[in-house]
Amino acid sequence: MRPSGRATDALRAITIETGVSRHAEGSCLIRMGDTHVLCTASVEENVPPFLRKTGLGWVTAEYGMLPRATTSRNRREASAGKQSGRTQEIQRLIGRSLRAGIDRVALGERQITVDCDVIQADGGTRCASITGGWVALRLAVNKLLKAGDVKSDPITTHVAAVSCGVYGGQPVLDLDYAEDSVAGTDGNFVMTGEFGLIEVQGSAEGATFSRGELGQLLDLAEKGISDLVAAQKAAIS
Domains in the chain, ordered, with CATH? Predict the structure, then answer.
């Protein structure tokens, strides 16, 4: 029995509220159970120096957690003067994942920065950031299309992410913190809307896992991605 009482293949309750930031070109608040992430997408009419005069656009991301997103206060990284290795790793993952669903030629020489700020954490913050980040990105691109700033849609597919792991000896979908903190195996799966794999992160925390168990986790991930893409479609409709 999972602590939440969910079936092994059930996501936490998910809601995606759009238009939550007045100034950002695209924004949403994604809630996956008790994990809540504010995602905003900002368009800039320039690109990093290494892309100037290439005709290619760029999508990047930044990630952070508010001090009381967790059970005890975490010091703001800005006050420490540097980002943690975890923060840097997660925001690079978000950026890589979102770029996998973008035609950078069609985007043109402009940059879209997706900011993912964790308001409340209960496991799976990087996955929620990717899933919500795509919605914010989609809304920002819609504005570019409506204004005629881009001629063809640079977004080629949905991108979403979900965690899977082995909890209590059983493969389960979408781990919350109670499960994640004691899981024997913990993994994050980033996929396109057609289940193309973008990135797989998996580690044996308490015991090794078999190739067969990895296959079970992939099956669970596909079901989760299907449900998350449906939620993305509902949010932008």
Answer: 14-236 (3.30.230.70)
Whether residue 189 contacts residue 124, with contact meaning beta carbons closer than 8 Å, is answered with: no
Annotated binding site for phosphate: which residue ranges? 86, 124-126
pLDDT at 54: 96
At 109-147, the pLDDT tens digits run 999 999 999 999 999 999 999 999 999 999 999 999 999
Please enumerate, by residue number, every residue annotated as part of a binding site. Answer: 86, 124-126
Express each pLDDT in 194-236 by its tens digit.
999 999 999 998 788 899 999 999 999 999 999 999 999 999 9
